Every structure is written in C-alpha cells, then in structure tokens.
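FAQ: What does the model actually see?

It sees only this:
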Amino acid sequence: MTSINVFAPTRAHINQQIVLNDPSRFKLLRAGRKWRKTSLGISWLVERALLDTEGLTYPFILPYQTQARETVWNDHVKRMIHEFEDKGLPYNLLEQPMAIEFPGHGRLKLMGSDNEVALRSASNWGAMVGDEVDDWKRDVWDVTIRPNLMTHQAPAILMGTPKGKKNMWRLENMVNPQSGKPIFKSFHFTSFDNPDLPRAEIEAYANEQRERGNDWYEQEIMAEYRKPYGMVYKEWDETRQFKHIGYEPNLPLHISFDWGINDPTAVIWIQPDKYHGEWRIIDYYEASDANIEHFVSVIQSKPYKPAELYTGDPAGKARTLTTGTSVIEILQAKNIFVRTMDGVRVQDQIRVAHQYIPGVYVDSKCERFRDSMLNYRYPDVKEGARNQENELPIHDEYSHAMRAFEYWCVNTMHMFKAKSLNTSPIRSFDWWGKKLDAQKKKTNYVGGI
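And it is asked to produce this:
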C-alpha cells in the first residue's frame, strides 16, 4: 500500500506518540485545549481502517451528530483527503452519513452519542474513538458502546477535556471487579504539552483562561478535575461530606421525589439529625420509563423503617387523562402521603437549600447523587450578567436528584429552626459521630424532627 501520512500535513508530536505506542486496549486521554486530541483520534482510526482487510467500521463518536460535521468532518477529514489524493489512494467519500470507505479495507464513520439508536447493536466495529465524553449521557459507554466492541475485541480511545467530575473521572476510576485493576490506561496532558504550539501563544491563551477564574484555568488548560464553572452548590465539600454513613435506626427517615415523565424519576432517602445540624443522604435511586408501582416496590424493598415524611414535586398532583388520577393520589391509596409546597420558585428553593448544604452528608454508596451534586450548575455566564443565582440551573441528567433534594428542603424548612441549619463553622461528621456514640452509651438517644 502507498505510504500515507495520516497526520498530514503535520506529524504526530512526541506526546501523541506516547499514547499511540501504548499497547493497552482501552485508553482514556485527558488533555487540555489545543493539545490535538481530535487529530490523534481521527488519524488513529484512519490508520487502522487502512490496515483492515475485513471491511469493518471505525467510528469517531462526538456528543452530537451536528457537532461531528462542523468540527471534524469539515476540518480534520477534509484535510486528510488532500493526502489521499496526493498519494493516489482510492476512497469513496459519503457526505450524508459522514463516512469514508477505503475499497478492500475498512471505513471511517463519524457519529453522535445522541443518536443511540444508530449506535446500538453494531457488531462490525474494528476500533472506536469517543471525543468530549463528558458531554455524553452517563451510560452511553457502559450500555451502548462497550457491547459493540465484543465481537472483534476492538480497542477504544476515550478522550476530552474534563468538565468537573463526570464521565471521564468515573471511567478513569473504574476497575475490573475481578482483578482490581483499572479498566482504562489513563493519560494526562496539559495544553502546554503540545510542543507544536508557539510558547507565546499558549501562554497568552492560558492567561485568558486565568481571567475567567483559577478553576476554569485548571480545567481547560491543565485538564484537572475541578468543580464545574457555575456549580450551584459549590460550597459542598466532597472530601468531607461524601463518606460511609450508613442507616441509623434511631434517626427519622424521610423520602423525597422528583417525578419524571420523559425524564427519570429520582428518589432520595434522607435522615435528618436536627440535634447536630446534619442531613444525611443515605440512599438514592432513579429510573426512567417505570410506573409508580415500581418505585413503591423499590421503597418497600429497602432495609429501612417506614418513612415519617414524604415530600415531592407539586407536579405530582397533576392527573393524567388516561387514569384520571395523579401520582400523589396513587401513592395516597398505598398509605404514602406526599407533602408538597406550591408556588415556590426554583430560585427560592435553591436559596433555602443553600442553608442546608454545610450539613449535607452523602453516603459513599450514593455515587449518582454525589455526581449530581458536583455537576448541577448554571448556564455559562452571559455577558453583562450580574447575579447568576437569578437564573435557572441547567436541566439535564444531573438536575433530577437535586430537585428532589430541594423539594425536601422547602417542605421541611419550618420544621428546623434557623439554629438547626448548619450555618455555623463546619463541623466534622467524624467528630459528631464519636460524640453521638458516647452519648448513646449514657442514654437511649432517639432523634426527632
């Protein structure tokens, strides 16, 4: 075959070569802006497609199909075509499906993770690359893409610049339950690690990002996992407030809902400890396309006592045309009485919830709730905006858990006097735990609301 430079008109820089030369099947590349992640991914797939003799497909998957055309097809792919033509390499360019076929070999195809129907059940993949995976839905890799790689034991590279602790962080920390070893070989580079960029230019770009804030600079340039810009509950401290808590039978138990129709329904189990100003999230569950009986079954299956209080979204009062009843009425028939509060703006619910945040502890098994807390954020700040807290947070996969929590906050704020809300200097959960244990030895302590 004619010698083709898949990186034309340049060459792979030294740090790209480190990733390409590593033999690991699954790689995760975390890199700052302008490190040349996309060129690495496209070039790697084209090289494998040209070496293929089975006619397999080599997908490059971005978050959205439209993004694939604008940022990759019309840029990286089109510049490769000049190399193919200069070297006389035969190819078929398919504009509509965004694919390049190499007769007698494989084909490159651009896809969007938002088109899950097109991604499902593929069995002819020879390798794949996923770009900006923090903008994918959470389970796209686990549920949709990973099974497609089994038939041909295809390798994969997932990459991007992190946006808080989302998909990349989760995948980087994923381990094989049998071996205990990481599933992905991880690589971490900053924007400064692209030796082809003029140093003065990258320094100028870095300074521009510093102007937006240190967290933004650490994320965009240094590719570190930072709390996302615009995080709603930025004062929540994961290192202190996410740990093993467990169920305490002597404390009250509350359950709160965020009802979903086309979105997931979220359920949280909360144990308030008014005496210590602690609000313990001990369990969390969410599911889509499930009826209310499913959630009742989940609640009843938990090894906890019956909840003293249920709270939820006022939308649960809406009656369906099919049954003429509402979710809350169905639950009421099952002796589950849900308290709601009408007419409270989302922004005001958030302000109430902020009073609880210093005392909110999340059990380490509630990883999904932790992820939601860390990624629940406002839209990017608009030019001239003065008070972002007057805006609504982004409605996405991370907002459902937080809405259930906020409904609980506004429905219980009258139960807890201001001094019960943890607005004093932060106290250690471990310290209070030791004090509580000592107190239990002296008295039969029973928590109350």
